[in-house]
Each structure stands twice: as C-alpha cells, then as structure tokens.
Amino acid sequence: xxxxxxxxxxxxxxxxxxxxxxxxxxxxxxxxxxxxxxxxxxxxxxxxxxxxxxxxxxxxxxxxxxxx
Length: 68
Description:
- The strands form 2 sheets. Strands 1-4 form a two-stranded antiparallel sheet. Strands 2-3 form a two-stranded antiparallel sheet.
- 0% of the residues lie in helices and 21% in strands.
- It has no helices and 4 strands.
- A hairpin with a 2-residue loop joins strand 2 and strand 3.
- It is an all-beta fold.
- The radius of gyration is 14 Å and the shape is globular.
C-alpha cells in the first residue's frame, strides 16, 4: 500500500484537521517521530465521504496516548 503524508503537527498537538476532501474513502494512520526515528504506524482509521456539498467541514480527530 502506498501512503501519502497529508500533514504534520507539533508534539503537543493531539488533533489534526484534513479539510476539502473529495468524495470517496479516506484512510488514515499516524506515525510519531523522535530522534530515534519514526514509530510503527497506528491502526488505520477510515472515513467515507459520500454526500457532496455537505454543510460544515469534515474533521478527522486522532488521539495519541504515549506510554513510557
């Protein structure tokens, strides 16, 4: 599977908004990066956008919990 990076956030940010998405199925996963390199990807989260011109924005919220 080929993945495309759609954005990055600072370490303290726990949400990401991806807007202006076309109709269709959108699947996301999250990777954390540190000096040691990238983490393994998170589980996938999929959303289907099938209503053209829906009012409001589509917000995909990802919550990351870091355990020591």
